[in-house]
Amino acid sequence: MDLVGACRAFVAVSEHGSFTVGAAAARIPQSVASRRIAALEEHFGAKLFDRSSRSVTLTPFGRDMLPSARRLTELAEAMEHDAERAKLRPFRLAVPAVCSPRRLARLVADGRLAGVHLDLHPAGPGERGGLARALEVRAALVAVPPDEAIWRVPLGLAGSAEPEDPAIYLDTLRAGRADRSARRRHVWLQPEDDVPHVRDRMMRLRDAVGLQPTQVGVSASLVDAVGAVLDSADLLLCSSDQADELGLHWRPVGGTELVRGYGIAAGLREDTARLVTGLGASIAHCLGASTATAGSGRSVRAAPGRSGGLG
């Protein structure tokens, strides 16, 4: 039996003294109101109304039960109101600062369709982890090694001139004897990639192919890095989507695979599952990843106060 629905019918009929009018006030058919009240009477084992052809009046038992029925219906209405407010409560999510405004707006719109009202906080990789640990956000998209990632974003090199080859090999940036006086080309990492699993791998690759230490470096900001690339032959480490947004020509790095990995740091497992299940594809699009994968490791099982393998 629907106890709340039955009590609503009981209260409405008692207030109006009529099954017809009471049912209309409760926005249910009269037959439904009659069945619900009959079920309530059967449940309690006593009559709530004295019925006649002209009127409906409360029995002594009905008068005694009416205050409790009112409290139950009022509590149910308050609970429904609270549930609607809870669904509208913003879900504070820290996201990479490199995500474009258009993609962030699309993520917010997709969240609303999924019943999640996102309040996005763009930030760098270290800051996102700190926000999650301090519980200043409900969840954060954090940088993790690719083998722990839910979302993977392939990286390559982009420049102002379109390369002739399908990939860019770092050893082609070495200065030859004939052009030692010329300015050496540089590869710039943006702050989003200043994490061990990207930065350290780039530095090892730099040393392996014999580049100068200064030829691969981390820029203070994405704007500074792009500025250096636009007026020179320098290159920016980025995703292909990011290169398109910046108007740069992108190629993969020859001979190696460089990937941004993203997981979720959240205080509640339910929040992690909600993002992955309900918004996984939208988050993938926002990050420039191809799909959301069934990630493993800490990035999926983020515990309170942990960032799931921050770089």
UniProtKB/TrEMBL annotation:
Organism: Micromonospora deserti
Superkingdom field: Bacteria
Family in the record: Belongs to the LysR transcriptional regulatory family.
Database matches in PROSITE patterns: HTH_LYSR
InterPro entries: LysR_HTH_N, WH-like_DNA-bd_sf, WH_DNA-bd_sf
Protein name stated in the entry: LysR family transcriptional regulator
Lineage, highest ranks first: Bacteria, Bacillati, Actinomycetota, Actinomycetes, Micromonosporales
One MF term in the entry's GO annotations: DNA binding
Keywords: DNA-binding, Transcription, Transcription regulation
Domain HTH lysR-type: 1-59
UniProt keyword Transcription regulation present: yes
Tagged with keyword Transcription: yes
GO cellular component: protein-DNA complex
